[in-house]
Amino acid sequence: MEQDRFVRVHLKTVYFLIFFSFGGLFPLLSVYLRDVVGLSGAEIGTIMSIGPLMMIFAQPLWGILSDYTQKPREILSVTMIITGGLALFYLPFSVYIVLVIVAASVALFQGSIVPISDSITLNYVHEKGGDYGSIRLWGAAGFSISVLLVGTLSDIFGLQIIFYTFAVSLWLCAYFTRKMPKEGQLPKVQLKKGISQLIQNKQFILFMMTTFFVFGPIFANNFYFGLLIQDVGGSLTGVGIAFLLAAGSEIPFMRWVGYWIDRIGLLKIILIAAIVSSLRWFFYAIEPAPILIYITTIAQGMSIGLFIPAAIQYVRKITPEDVKVTAVSVYSSVGGGLGTSFCTLMAGFLLERFDIFAVYLFFGGLTTLGVITIIVVMRWCLPCK
């Protein structure tokens, strides 16, 4: 029992530090590129989208490597150290093409972090019992605390600090990965057979469309939400407060998502989360006052706090046991990679051609398509609701 408590504390610490690093960098990176480097909207959109685009290829490859070697902890630790170091290369350069290369390099190794962490945690919860959401909520806590703290520090010391907090947090996190559960229980994956199983799994393919439409805007919002706050009159500290409220609201929903899943089912939870997310983006498109943005950030708790735990459990439920890490990585690459890259790139062009409010109108429309695909999944696969 004591050992189990010790492991859970380390899992929570890992999630806290992972998302603390993300919260300190990504919400303010677009602000840094615009206000410090002086890039245009299209250039910012391209740089912000190149990372998710790289993850389309990186995440499945890391998942395959993890399944094949059965050494996810070691892979996780090494990629965290490298990711943190590569992010520091943003600082000495202001040439657009060089920054594209830096973004791609960071994403190549960052692509392993969340999918492998999720797979280790889900496998542990499956064996030992418990609720994934109660562990994953520490990521939301880390993100919300970081974006407020780093936003405030950026107002005082300058935006360059976002890269140092990102690197140090990941390096510290790499230390704690050594105490994560070992993953020797799964059979050795047969790569060709495993990939073939995923490609032929119609439920899996259809659900990937859902993650593209819903996750793309959710993750792209992390890059543009800071610009939204500033364009309605907020400061960098205001950006931090907004993210604190938004990410902090995820915690109670992640804490109780397991109970709600048991009560009404995975796909219904996913549908509710997608509808709330769509309404949120449309609301931001009508140019609301800052106070209304702060008040409605609770919608993030309902959307992300419910969608992420439910979606990842659904993916593991419908995929074969010996390729679950690969399946989670492919799922992450479609939503966090392909969807985010597409949304981020298109948002950059919309920002340059129109304004930030057009960006959120686009997000709302795309998420509505996600709502439709979820309904199709529910009707097509009734036993999996």
Explain the layout of strands and helices.
Layout: H1 2-37, H2 41-69, H3 72-87, H4 96-110, H5 113-128, H6 132-157, H7 161-176, H8 191-200, H9 202-231, H10 236-248, H11 250-264, H12 266-284, H13 290-295, H14 298-317, H15 324-353, H16 356-380
What does this structure look like?
The protein is mainly α and 385 residues long. The protein has one domain (2-384): MFS general substrate transporter like domains (Growth Hormone, Chain: A). It has helices spanning 2-37, 41-69, 72-87, 96-110, 113-128, 132-157, 161-176, 191-200, 202-231, 236-248, 250-264, 266-284, 290-295, 298-317, 324-353, 356-380. α1 packs antiparallel against α7 (161-176) and α5 crosses α15. The longest helix has 36 residues, at 2-37.
What's the gist of this structure?
The chain is mainly α. Helices cover 84% and strands 0% of the residues.
CATH architecture group name: Up-down Bundle
Sequence of secondary-structure elements? HHHHHHHHHHHHHHHH
Q: Do you know the CATH topology?
A: Growth Hormone, Chain: A
Give the beta-strand count: 0
Largest sheet: none
Our estimate of the beta-strand percent is under 5%
Low-confidence stretches: 184-189
Secondary structure tally, helices: 16
Protein name: MFS transporter
InterPro entries: MFS_assoc_dom, MFS_dom, MFS_trans_sf
Membrane topology: Multi-pass membrane protein
Main location: membrane
